[in-house]
Amino acid sequence: MANNFRMIAKTLYGFETILAKELLDLGAMDIKEGNRMVSFVGDLGFMYKANLCLRTAIKILKPYESFKANNEQELYDNIKRLPWEKFLAEDGSLAIDSAVHSEIFTHSQYVALKTKDAIVDRFREKYGKRPDVDLDFPDLRINIHIENNFCNVSFDSSGDSLHKRGYRSATNIAPINEVLAAGMLLMSGWDGQCDFLDPMCGSGTIPIEAAMIACNIPPNLNRKEFAFEKWSDWDEDLYEKIEESALKKVRDFHYKIKGYDKAPSAVMKAKENVKNANLSDFIEIQQKSFFESVKENEGYLHMLFNPPYGERLEIDIEEFYGKIGDTLKQSYPGTHAWFIATNFDAIKSVGLRASRKIKLFNGPLEGRLLKYVLYEGSKKRSKQENA
């Protein structure tokens, strides 16, 4: 217990409860949901496991120090007094990310600059040398979060955002964030116990995330590195044990995962990404227009997709979403269809009643994750058969 410490997993809006459940299932302690974040307690090995295995986390932060700062000088002084030499060599490198919600501090870049100044001034005075700034591969990535006059300083154990899984070498014009894809899949109840279809798969992110959930494959297995690998307490043997243990929990998948896209270039990219993720045995990508497709499997089908929303792809939104509704209604009986939409007028054009509407954000755009239940035959008969 003495080696446990509190950590913060950052996430996207609306995924806090799903992330908390992921943490509980992994074995975290004292889990507390916040706004776009969940805090929890674990040890060093659990920090490695969280980075490797969490599907809906963007970053895992290790809090270091908190203090109040009512002006720039207090921020500078409080940062400068901390013993940074414990974590960073004078000829090392650092990067600082900052987020501010404050009337005192109104510019996050300026806060990052003042923090950097305070740290390098301490090193210069102590050693006559100072660490460099390296925004891409620093030895230490520091996170500063200011709420009003309250400042939290944390170490970023992840490095690059955890949505960068490492399998996506090719993207289409409007790729979906991997964490958003995984979160929507978990929110939709996808558990790998039936066939799955993404009928507008683009570069293949949703089918890949669906296969990793179905097979219980750690989502960040393909990443090249995590920030904690440069920390002074980096324990490679421990990490390898954590990875080995996670891989023992991988399970078989006995259904089909398919992705369609009408664009040959998207199909080529999706196949390449599926191959990079070592999931070619589980995912079939086909060049096909959803609007000319029919349900191919017997029994229940789980569908989830991210249709174009007119921001980066030029389409007649109302006509397009009307065709989505018609295709679902006419060609996909016995299906639960989920998709994310950011154009609220377009949703009305679907012509079906959504049984669920969940508020999410796709990048900066507010959207809704919608669920449509398509029954086999009539709804009434379906209910009688299931009674």
Can you describe this structure?
Keywords: Methyltransferase, RNA-binding, Transferase. This is Class I SAM-dependent RNA methyltransferase. The protein has 387 residues and is an alpha/beta fold. It folds into two domains: 5-156, VC0802-like (2-Layer Sandwich), CATH 3.30.2130; 178-219 and 254-374, Rossmann fold (3-Layer(aba) Sandwich). Helix content is 33%, strand content 25%. It is built from eleven helices and 15 strands. It has helices at 16-26, 44-53, 72-80, 108-127, 178-187, 205-215, 236-248, 264-276, 317-331, 344-349, 379-386, and strands at 5-10, 29-33, 37-42, 59-68, 93-101, 132-133, 140-147, 150-156, 195-198, 257-261, 283-287, 301-305, 335-341, 356-362, 365-374. The strands form two sheets. The protein has an eight-stranded mixed sheet. The chain has a seven-stranded mixed sheet with strand order 11-10-9-12-13-15-14. Strand 7 and strand 8 form a beta hairpin. The chain starts with a strand and ends with a helix.
Write the layout of secondary structure elements.
Blueprint: E1 5-10, H1 16-26, E2 29-33, E3 37-42, H2 44-53, E4 59-68, H3 72-80, E5 93-101, H4 108-127, E6 132-133, E7 140-147, E8 150-156, H5 178-187, E9 195-198, H6 205-215, H7 236-248, E10 257-261, H8 264-276, E11 283-287, E12 301-305, H9 317-331, E13 335-341, H10 344-349, E14 356-362, E15 365-374, H11 379-386
Parallel strand pairs: 5-6, 5-7, 9-10, 9-12, 10-11, 12-13
Antiparallel strand pairs: 1-3, 1-4, 2-3, 4-8, 7-8, 13-15, 14-15
Helix pairs in contact: 2-7, 3-4, 5-6
